[in-house]
Amino acid sequence: RVDDRTLNFERSGDGFIDRETGTTWNLYGEATEGTLKGQTLPPVVHINHFWFSYYAFRPDAHVYTMPK
Question: What is the C-alpha radius of gyration for the chain, rounded to an integer number of angstroms?
Fold first, then answer.
């Protein structure tokens, strides 16, 4: 969410584009081009897991990787 707006994202090149405004976002949650340029998404609290232990309980899970 940015301000009162919920955004939905799709992959694009090395980052993401939100469907609502067409703004380009990098992996750090920073808007780099478009209507919301200069905005930053709030961070998501997370921890690192070994994917194989998660997969044991969620075999329908997918591993996401960014292209190099």
Answer: 14
CA distances to 13, 19, 21 from 37, rounded to whole Å, are 17, 15, 11
Higher-scoring residue by pLDDT: 29, 49: 29
What are 16's strand-pairing partners?
A: 11, 25
Query: How does pLDDT run across 7-25, given as a tens digit for each residue?
Result: 999 999 889 999 999 999 9
Q: Nearest CA to 23 among 50, 51, 3?
A: 3
**Separation between Cα atoms, residue 28 and residue 40, nearest integer Å:** 8
* 3-state SS class at 16: strand
